[in-house]
C-alpha cells in the first residue's frame, strides 16, 4: 500500500511536471525525484517480501493495509514538506525576499553607478 | 532494518563525484531543433547534471525510506540509532543490507543508466535533425 500510494504520487507529479511545470521555477521536479526514488526502493522491498511470503503478499490483513496506507500518506506529506522547504529557501519567485525587504524607492543600478 | 543505508552511502559518494566533475566541466553549445521546427543554440546537458539525477533519486528515496524505518521503530534517535544493533541482530541487519539494500542501489543506478541512454538517443536525434535541415537548405 505504501508503494502504491508513493507510486501514484510519483506518476501525478511527473504528469504535472511534463504538462508545463518544468517551465516554471516551482521545482516540481524535486517531488518527482523524491517519490520515484522511494518507489523504486519500495519496489525492491516488495520483491523481497513476495519472495518470502509468496501469494500471501497480495492478501494483507485489513489492519496492516490501513497502517501501510497511513504510512504512505505520511510519506507523501513528508515529501511535500521537503519540497516546500526547498521552495521557500530557494525562493524562486522572490516572494520571501519581497516580504522581508519592503521596497521604499526605486533606484536603477547601472554600470555608471 | 537498515537497507536504506546502502543507497544513502552511494548518494554520499555520487554527490562528492558530482562536485568534483562540476568543477572541471566546461559548457558545450549545440544547435537543437525543437518540436515547433525552430532551431536554437542551446547548452548541452553536462554530465554532472545527469549525475545529479542519480543523486536526487538516491537522496530522495533514502530520506523517505529512513522515515519508514523510524515509523516502524527500526531507527531510533538515540545511540546506537539502529534497533537491530541494540537487540544483537547485527548479522541479520547486515545480511538485509547486503541483499535488499544492495539491490535497491543497483536498481536505482540501472534505471539512471537507462535514463542516460534514452537522453543520449534524444540528444543525438535532435542534432541529426539539425544536420538534415541544414542539408535540405
Compressed to H and E, one letter per element, the order of chain A equals: HHHH
Mean pLDDT level of chain B: 87
Shape of chain A: elongated
Distance between the termini of chain B: 63 Å
Round the mean pLDDT of chain A to the nearest integer and report it.
Answer: 88
Report on the biggest sheet of chain B.
2 strands, antiparallel
As a whole number of angstroms, the C-alpha radius of gyration of chain B is: 21 Å
Structural domain tally of chain A: 1
Number of strands of chain A: 0
Summed up, the helix count of chain B is: 4
Main sheet record of chain A: none
Low-confidence stretches of chain B: none
Number of strands of chain B: 2
Structural category of chain B? mainly alpha
Largest interface, C-beta closer than 8 angstroms, per-chain residues: A-B, 24 and 24 residues
What does this structure look like?
- The complex is a heterodimer of chains A (113) and B (137).
- Chain A is an all-alpha fold.
- Chain A has one domain (2-100).
- Chain A has helices at residues 2-21, 28-53, 62-90, 95-100.
- Chain B has 137 residues and is mainly alpha-helical.
- Chain B has one domain.
- Chain B contains four helices and two strands; from the N terminus they run αββααα.
- Chain B has helices at residues 5-24, 47-71, 83-86, 90-136; strands at 29-33, 39-43.
- In chain B, strands 1-2 form a two-stranded antiparallel ribbon.
- In chain B, a hairpin with a 5-residue loop joins strand 1 and strand 2 (39-43).
- The mean pLDDT of chain B is 87.
- The A-B interface holds A 2, 6, 30, 33-45, 47-48, 71, 74-75, 78-79, 82 and B 3-4, 7, 53, 56-65, 67-68, 71, 99-100, 103-104, 107-108, 111.
